[in-house]
Amino acid sequence: MSAAPPKKPAGSAKKTSGPSTKPAGSGKKPPAASTKPSMRVPRTPPTKFGIVAIVGRPNAGKSTMLNRILGQKVSIVSDKPQTTRNRIVGILSEPRGQVVFLDTPGIHKPLHKLNARMMSHVNSSFNEADVIVTMVDASQSFGHGDEFVLKMIAATKGSKARRVAVLNKIDLLKKNALLPLIAKYAEGDIFDEIVPISAATGEGLDDLLGVLFTALPAGEPLYSKDDYTTQPERFLAAEIVREKLLARTRDELPYTTAVGIDRWDEDEETGLLRIYASIYVERDSQKKLVIGLRGEGIKAIGTEARVELEAILGTRIFLQTYVKVHEHWREDERFLGELEWPFGGE
Ligand SMILES: Nc1nc2c(ncn2[C@@H]2O[C@H](COP(=O)(O)OP(=O)(O)O)[C@@H](O)[C@H]2O)c(=O)[nH]1
Ligand SMILES: [Mg+2]
């Protein structure tokens, strides 16, 4: 993986220097001197390149869909809202072209500085996108939150971006429940396309990719075809620890915990990667909850995260986790910045 957060791409992502990965056959000249001008000359369609922002309410399945499309885990998933706090970049390279997906935090009312930052990631993604995918949990009835999202999307109508509504979780739906929802999203002419999918089973994803590639502008790939994210490994490691933590916490705890990486040591001789991570909570009582009885909670989180990271990074890992109290971390801009770009002091 290359090493750049989406916020600071200059000089950091493994970008190819221009159009180096032309697909086979592109740039072919049409057959010379046809005597029949009416005959259609077969051409390879131009490759596509562009940015697809995935937005929507918390828990709609945005991150699940991105991981499924890429066949790689780039964005953590949980059944708690506000799991994704950052803008996560996922890159899909195909003979048809290259799509840079931006996975974003769920659209919600910002109550803390943390949440304001989260919403700023959503808004900046709107501005960059060639296509805005609005993801909807079709298994939930349409409510105020959905209305709010629709208004936000409608407000982008003046921009160049194409708008696609994706109705997710159709695996949970009765067949006849889908049509009224499609009709609802067809109202007001906000969306260019409406695509039902299940990110969990993969149903409808081929159709969605067809729609996206059609909507994207022609262009050459910007990233090497082996790159599937611009996230630094260090950030991914913190996220995987947080995912395991989220799976074991409930009530207010998921919102009040954060994970930072303190040290990252690669031992070239033994091939062992040593990662020292801190789990931040807001109060002492929460610290006890995370650590669990006789340390069982923190131990399980550490083991699960290590096993998954070893598989993703393909190396042996020693992972040490500490639980620390940082009372108002959600309001601490400097700390929030360090969580997003975990290289301070190096
Ligand atoms: N049944 C079902 N569950 C899904 C589907 N997509 C996502 N989920 C679940 O919905 C929850 C939220 O998913 P996540 O990707 O974190 O949503 P996000 O907040 O929009 O990124 C998780 O528990 C997922 O496993 C789907 O197509 N079907
Ligand atoms: Mg998410």
Which terms would index this structure?
single chain; 346 residues; alpha/beta; 2 domains; six-stranded mixed beta sheet; three-stranded mixed beta sheet; 10 helices; binds guanosine-5'-diphosphate; binds magnesium ion
Q: How would you sum up this structure, described in words?
A:
- By secondary structure, the protein is an alpha/beta fold.
- The chain folds into 2 domains: 48-215, P-loop containing nucleotide triphosphate hydrolases (Rossmann fold, 3-Layer(aba) Sandwich), CATH 3.40.50.300; 233-338, GMP Synthetase, Chain A, domain 3.
- It contains 10 helices and 9 strands.
- A 6-stranded mixed beta sheet has the order 2-3-1-4-5-6, with helices on both faces.
- Helix 6 packs antiparallel against helix 9 (296-313).
- The protein is globular, with a radius of gyration of 22 Å.
- The protein binds guanosine-5'-diphosphate and magnesium ion.
Q: Which CATH architecture of the largest domain is right?
A: 3-Layer(aba) Sandwich
Give me the strand/helix succession.
Answer: EHEEHEHEHEHHHEEHHEH
Query: Largest sheet, described in full?
Result: 6 strands, mixed
Bound molecules: guanosine-5'-diphosphate, magnesium ion
Indicate the low-confidence ranges by residue numbers: 1-34
CATH H-level superfamily of the largest domain: P-loop containing nucleotide triphosphate hydrolases
What amount of the residues lies in strands?
A: 15-25%
Task: Count up the domains.
Answer: 2
What is the arithmetic mean of pLDDT?
Answer: 89
Strand order of the largest sheet: 2-3-1-4-5-6
Overall morphology: globular
Query: Would you tell me the structural class of the helices and strands?
Result: alpha/beta
Fraction of residues in helix: 25-40%
Return the CATH topology of the largest domain: Rossmann fold
Number of strands: 9
**Measured distance between first and last alpha carbons:** 19 Å
Helical stretch tally = 10
